[in-house]
Amino acid sequence: xxxxxxxxxxxxxxxxxxxxxxxxxxxxxxxxxxxxxxxxxxxxxxxxxxxxxxxxxxxxxxxxxxxxxxxxxxxxxxxxxxxxxxxxxxxxxxxxxxxxxxxxxxxxxxxxxxxxxxxxxxxxxxxxxxxxxxxxxxxxxxxxxxxxxxxxxxxxxxxxxxxxxxxxxxxxxxxxxxxxxxxxxxxxxxxxxxxxxxxxxxxxxxxxxxxxxxxxxxxxxxxxxxxxxxxxxxxxxxxxxxxxxxxxxxxxxxxxxxxxxxxxxxxxxxxxxxxxxxxxxxxxxxxxxxxxxxxxxxxxxxxxxxxxxxxxxxxxxxxxxxxxxxxxxxxxxxxxxxxxxxxxxxxxxxxxxxxxxxxxxxxxxxxxxxxxxxxxxxxxxxxxxxxxxxxxxxxxxxxxxxxxxxxxxxxxxxxxxxxxxxxxxxxxxxxxxxxxxxxxxxxxxxxxxxxxxxxxxxxxxxxxxxxxxxxxxxxxxxxxxxxxxxxxxxxxxxxxxxxxxxxxxxxxxxxxxxxxxxxxxxxxxxxxxxxxxxxxxxxxxxxxxxxxxxxxxxxxxxxxxxxxxxxxxxxxxxxxxxxxxxxxxxxxxxxxxxxxxxxxxxxxxxxxxxxxxxxxxxxxxxxxxxxxxxxxxxxxxxxxxxxxxxxxxxxxxxxxxxxxxxxxxxxxxxxxxxxxxxxxxxxxxxxxxxxxxxxxxxxxxxxxxxxxxxxxxxxxxxxxxxxxxxx
Length: 727
Fold this sequence. Notes:
Layout: H1 10-26, E1 31-32, H2 33-43, E2 63-64, E3 69-70, E4 78-81, E5 88-97, E6 132-140, H3 152-161, E7 171-176, H4 180-183, H5 187-196, H6 200-203, H7 212-216, H8 221-241, E8 245-248, E9 251-254, H9 255-263, H10 270-281, E10 297-302, H11 303-307, H12 321-340, E11 351-356, E12 363-368, H13 384-387, E13 415-419, E14 423-429, H14 432-437, E15 440-441, H15 444-454, E16 457-458, E17 461-465, H16 473-476, E18 477-479, E19 481-484, E20 489-492, E21 505-511, E22 516-520, E23 523-530, E24 533-537, H17 541-547, E25 552-553, E26 556-557, H18 564-575, E27 577-578, E28 584-587, H19 591-596, H20 602-617, E29 622-628, E30 634-635, E31 644-650, E32 654-656, E33 674-677, E34 680-683, H21 692-704, E35 717-720, E36 723-726
Parallel strand pairs: 2-4, 3-7, 17-22
Antiparallel strand pairs: 1-9, 4-5, 5-6, 6-7, 8-9, 10-12, 11-12, 13-14, 14-21, 15-20, 16-19, 17-18, 19-20, 21-22, 23-24, 23-32, 25-26, 27-28, 28-31, 29-30, 29-31, 33-36, 34-35
Helix pairs in contact: 1-8, 2-8, 5-8, 10-12, 18-20
């Protein structure tokens, strides 16, 4: 599961999904992907104790104070809310912007919708290196079970005093971000950063069912980050695959609860949801005039504050009920837009789109006349409110271009291994063009001899040997076509197996005078993971970097449709200076023009820069210094006497693949029925205590996880040492 949803076997997916569906049904608030991760990783009890039955160290939780500055607290963070008496332990289950300019009934100034953190006004993004943003956090005050929850009377007293939580039981804080790039990170990346820094002790705790350090085989930050991102992708994929759940962004709710909401005749029920949808649809519709033309009208509506205007809604918007109501309202608006409009354009001439998914619980944009605007995905928040207050581009935004590989001819050369009286043996990596068009070049010596004996066209057989991989009969033995020119030749009509990829090293043998060509791959001693791909066979790092980039697969090779992060990664890998080990480095200043073929619009350049910051923070890219010569060519390492320039680099980090704990190895060579069980805690029966041997074993286990002084076993638990079971 640390390798992402696609790497998980169906049986394990089903087990995970059944548990997550039960968690979403049991929790009173919509379940964010990070909260679902917490439930699996830290152990959420469905019987009513929540995390109360898990031996988490509450002292590790960050402390937050109502109305004051706070560190970044993403959804999923477990916190201690400071009060005047008893501490209030909670899990942050929902988060939104709480900009002071948003009106009490949800009216939003245009510049606020989509504005970056720290923005000071229309067209004023602010210059702070550590921007601040006011945010509303919804804590689940009962996530740790009855034993760690305050009584209703105590909570009512805290809400009434409004000193530590507000009257609704929420926490409003001014969040100070360490950088503008940090403020632009998505929810999952922000939570990974939180777990690796503020909550690191909690993440690597030996009290959890299986520590992340055990899952990835170490405590290095790069391994932990990659493992976390993989686990979060697995959890998100499971939530999105459920027929019982609906998702709004990263929040999951049951379809049953949505249906109950539509059928409810009380406050915030079906009637109020229909009223909200009608209000947003007609918000920008101008009044009928007998004479003259009407000017364009744009209205921005924040869902959260707007819900407070419905009679009887106050009680329902307290506690986690607010998160439920906001998600339900957004899903209702999205359904209406998708059902009753053409890409957001309604019959009354208004175009309705989601403009900001974070501020005020979601800001919806109503514009009339809507047919004058370029259509797009109405549910993709693009922040038109903010961009409307900045200088608009003078020409249409360019599309990314597909630049040819400058070193295409030098990539993956054919290498003659042996030639004698019996056979010719050579080696060459598989290229992307070979996969797309189903062909492979012949060595010139082989092509020359085949042409002499068979003419310019022959039909040899191709035998594939792929140890550890799956081949069907059509792929294992193929009748192909040999097209033989004067100096070159190639095999066509080749059906490459599905798990073949650009850079896979092939060894080919042709017995002289025969019509059989054998192709074999060579298995690695240990599988490695390069990016998202697990590789079990020898490969060419340079070809892999260039041709296994985003937008490139056996179905085509194009940058069309890629997002900013994928465009950045594709451009660095395809256009950067390439080292022998597959390390690609690109002059950072030329990235925008390399992506689009010319200088793009300011919004596109800003999106690329934001993507670069995210990729650097996640260590998927790394910074470097190079130099530029008098002809403008970059060099790495930097040359003496040349001005230095910043580079961004892609390094195909190879991580050893940890063998599965149950079943066979990724290549099929493991022993079926043998399962590795890592060290873990087990609850004891009342009155029992662990032996001294197990106490010592647990302290040693803690040291392996990175805690030098070890930890003591929590009361009521013993430690089970790692072992294997099965045949």
